[in-house]
Write a structure and sequence with these properties.
four-stranded antiparallel β-sheet; single chain; alpha+beta; 4 domains; 10 strands; flat; 613 residues
C-alpha cells in the first residue's frame, strides 16, 4: 500500500520548540510584566469601583496600542530567525537536507514550531490577565479577548513576512535588515517620491494622491491604524469622562495577518527549491540578484540626492532646469554607491569595478531616473498648467496664511480660477523670488492651496509656496472679503449658544497703549455675536483681511474672542473658536463695544504699525 505524503514531523516540531525555549520565555516574561502584573498593580490602586472597571479595559488595550506594536514585530522576526537559522550555515543546512523528511514537511514543522509557541504565550497572558482582574471579569473579558486577538493578528502578519524574507537570503545578519526594509519600504519610498515631486513639480501636493502607500508598510501602518479609542460619557455638570475603551484596528490588522499567512505558501515553495549551498549568501535566490542591485541603486540614488540637495542646495527647486540637473548629479553619486555596495555584498568581495555589461544596466537606470525628473521639471504631462473650467467646479477650498474658505458661487469660483492661473503664469517670478527669500528682502512666503471639488466627483489639489505680488494679492483679498468668503472663513464649526459658549473676552488697547480686557458672560457673548457681528459679516463689514495694505487704517485694535465647546467627538468634546477684529465699517459691533466701555482706535491713530490686542 502506497504511503501518504506527510507535511508535518512531530519530533522535529517538538525538538525545535524545546531548542528555542529561551526565546519563548523572554517573550512570556515581557508580556507578564506588561499585562497581568501591571493590571494587578493598577487595580490595587483604583480609587473606586468605577475606576477599577475602567482600568480593567484600559490596561489590555493600551498594551495592544503600545508595547504590543513593538513586541509583535520583534518576536515575529526573532522566531523566524530561530526556526530557519539552519539555512544560514553550511553544516546545519546540509544536516537538515539529509533528514528523511520531505522539504515541505520540514518547512511546515519549523513554521508551526516558530508560530504556535508565540500564540500560546499570547493566550496564557490573556488568561493571566483574567485571573489578575477576576473581580472585573465582565468588562475585562472583552478587553482581554481583543488584546489576544489583536496581538495574535500582528504576530501572524510579522511572522509571515519574516518567513518569506528568510527564504530570500542566506545570511542571518541580513534577515532582520531585510525584514525591517520590507516593512517600511513603501512608506520611505512614498516620502522620498513626494519630496522630489514637491520640489520639481510646481504646485504638486501629496494630498492630490488617492493611494496611500503607508498601507503597504506594516510597521508604519500599524502605528497609524492599530489603535484603541476611549468611550466617553457626559456627566450631570456637563463635563465628560472616559467610561471605557475599544480597539479600532481590526480591519488593518486582519488584512496584514491575511497577507502574512498567504506569504507562507510562496515561502514553502522557495524553501523546497532552495539550494543548500546558498547558505551565507546575501541573496539566496539567483534570479533576484540583479533585482537587488537595481533596488539598492534606486534607493541610494533617491535618498542621497534628497539629503545632499537639502544640505548643499536647499534652493534647488527654485533653480529650474539647472537645479534638476544638479539633483540628477546627486542621484548619479548615490546610485553608484548603492550599485557598488550591492555588488560587493553579492560577490563577497571589494573587487567589483570590472562589471562589464552590468555598467550598462546602471547607466540605463540613472538615465531613466533623470528622464523622469526632467519630465517633472519641464511639465511634459501638463500637470502644472492644468486648471479646471469654471463649469467643472462644484466648490473650491482656498487656504492662505492660516485662513481657509470654501466658495461655491460662480463669481467667486471664477475669481479663484483667475488667481490660480495668475500664479501659474508667474511660476518663474515666484520661484526666483523664493530662491532669494530672506529676512532682509522682506519676502515672507506662505502656502496657498487650491482644492477643487469637481462635477464628476473627482478632486484636484495644488499647493504653492509663494509671497503673492500686488496683483495676485489683490485678487485674493477681493475674493476673501466677499460675503461668502467672510462667512466661510469666520463662522465657527459649532453654533454659539448658552450651553456651548465656554469663554469670551474682548481685548483692546487703551489711550495709554496698554491692553485691557473685558470678560463676557455667555448671554453677552451671544448678544454681541448674533445681534451685531453676524449682521455686520453678512454685509461684508467685519472679518475682513488686507493683503495689499490698509489694515492699520481700517482695523480697530480690538479683538473679540469666543471659545465654544460641546459634548461629543473622539476626545469627549468638540471645540471651536471664533475671533475677529472690529473694523471702521462694523457699525453694529462698534456701537455695542463702545456701549460697554471699549475704546476703539486704529493702530495708525495710536502711532503704531502693528496690532496689539
Amino acid at each position: 500500500m502506497k504511503s501518504g505524503t506527510s507535511f508535518f514531523n512531530a519530533p522535529l516540531f517538538r525538538k525545535t520548540v524545546l531548542r528555542f525555549w529561551p526565546l519563548w520565555f523572554s517573550y512570556a516574561f515581557v508580556l507578564a510584566l506588561a499585562l497581568p502584573v501591571r493590571l494587578a498593580g493598577r487595580l490595587g490602586h483604583a480609587v473606586s469601583e468605577l475606576d477599577a472597571l475602567r482600568l480593567a479595559q484600559y490596561v489590555p488595550l493600551e498594551f495592544l496600542d503600545g508595547i504590543g506594536k513593538i513586541a509583535a514585530p520583534a518576536i515575529g522576526c526573532a522566531a523566524a530567525m530561530a526556526v530557519y537559522s539552519h539555512l544560514y550555515f553550511q553544516r546545519s543546512a546540509s544536516a537538515y537536507g539529509m533528514l528523511p523528511v520531505r522539504r515541505e514537511g520540514i518547512f511546515w514543522s519549523l513554521t508551526l514550531a516558530g508560530l504556535l509557541p508565540v500564540l500560546a504565550v499570547n493566550l496564557l497572558a490573556a488568561l493571566a490577565c483574567l485571573a489578575a482582574g477576576a473581580g472585573q471579569f465582565e468588562v475585562l473579558l472583552p478587553a482581554t479577548a481583543a488584546m489576544f486577538a489583536g496581538t495574535s493578528l500582528m504576530v501572524l502578519a510579522y511572522f509571515g513576512i519574516a518567513a518569506f524574507c528568510a527564504q530570500l537570503t542566506g545570511s542571518i545578519i541580513v534577515l532582520p535588515v531585510l525584514f525591517i526594509a520590507v516593512n517600511i519600504a513603501a512608506a520611505v519610498f512614498q516620502g522620498v517620491l513626494y519630496s522630489v515631486l514637491g520640489e520639481f513639480v510646481y504646485g504638486y501636493t501629496a494630498r492630490d494622491q488617492g493611494m496611500d502607500l503607508l498601507l503597504f508598510s506594516p510597521l508604519v501602518g500599524m502605528l497609524a491604524h492599530s489603535q484603541y479609542q476611549p468611550v466617553y460619557e457626559q456627566l450631570a455638570d456637563g463635563s465628560v469622562r472616559a467610561a471605557g475603551y475599544i480597539y479600532t484596528g481590526w480591519a488593518y490588522s486582519a488584512g496584514c495577518a491575511a497577507v502574512g499567512t498567504l506569504l507562507l505558501w510562496p515561502s514553502c515553495v522557495l524553501y523546497k527549491r532552495r539550494r543548500l549551498e546558498t547558505a551565507g549568501d546575501v541573496v539566496a535566490i539567483g534570479i533576484l540578484r540583479p533585482v537587488f542591485r537595481y533596488c539598492a541603486a534606486t534607493a541610494c540614488a533617491l535618498l542621497l540626492a534628497v539629503l545632499l540637495a537639502d544640505l548643499l542646495l536647499p534652493n534647488a527647486a527654485c533653480m529650474g532646469v539647472a537645479g534638476a540637473l544638479i539633483f540628477a548629479g546627486f542621484m548619479l553619486l548615490g546610485g553608484l554607491i548603492g550599485w557598488l555596495a550591492a555588488e560587493m555584498l553579492v560577490q563577497k568581495s571589494f573587487r567589483v569595478f570590472r562589471m562589464g555589461r552590468k555598467w550598462l544596466g546602471f547607466g540605463a537606470l540613472w538615465l531613466l531616473l533623470t528622464a523622469l525628473l526632467m519630465c517633472g521639471e519641464l511639465d511634459v504631462t501638463g500637470y502644472e498648467r492644468r486648471v479646471p473650467q469654471a463649469d467643472e467646479v462644484v466648490r473650491v477650498e482656498l487656504s492662505y496664511a492660516g485662513d481657509s474658505m470654501t466658495l461655491s458661487s460662480r463669481e467667486n469660483v471664477e475669481a479663484v480660477l483667475s488667481l490660480h492661473e495668475s500664479i501659474i503664469e508667474g511660476k518663474e517670478q515666484y520661484e526666483t523670488a523664493g530662491g532669494q527669500a530672506n529676512g532682509e528682502l522682506g519676502y515672507i512666503p506662505y502656502n496657498i492651496r487650491f482644492s477643487y471639488e469637481l462635477e464628476d466627483g473627482g478632486r484636484m489639489q495644488r499647493r504653492y509656496y509663494v509671497s503673492l505680488d500686488a496683483q495676485d494679492a489683490g485678487l485674493l483679498e477681493s475674493v476673501s472679503n466677499t460675503v461668502e468668503g467672510i462667512l466661510s472663513r469666520k463662522l465657527p464649526s459649532i453654533e454659539p449658544a448658552l450651553s456651548t459658549v465656554d469663554y469670551a473676552t474682548v481685548n483692546w488697547v487703551n489711550g495709554a497703549g496698554e491692553v485691557e480686557s473685558l470678560t463676557l458672560s455667555a448671554a453677552e457673548a451671544l448678544e454681541l455675536y448674533r445681534d451685531c457681528i453676524l449682521p455686520d459679516m453678512s454685509e461684508g463689514n467685519i472679518g475682513l483681511v488686507w493683503y495689499c495694505g490698509g489694515e492699520l487704517e481700517n482695523t480697530y485694535d480690538c479683538r473679540i474672542n469666543i471659545d465654544i465647546t460641546r459634548a461629543g467627538g473622539p476626545n469627549g468634546y468638540d471645540y471651536s473658536y471664533f475671533y475677529t477684529y472690529a473694523t471702521v465699517y462694523s457699525e453694529r459691533t462698534n456701537a455695542w463695544l463702545e456701549a460697554h466701555g471699549v475704546l476703539l482706535r486704529t493702530p495708525k491713530e495710536q502711532g503704531r504699525d502693528f496690532l496689539l490686542a
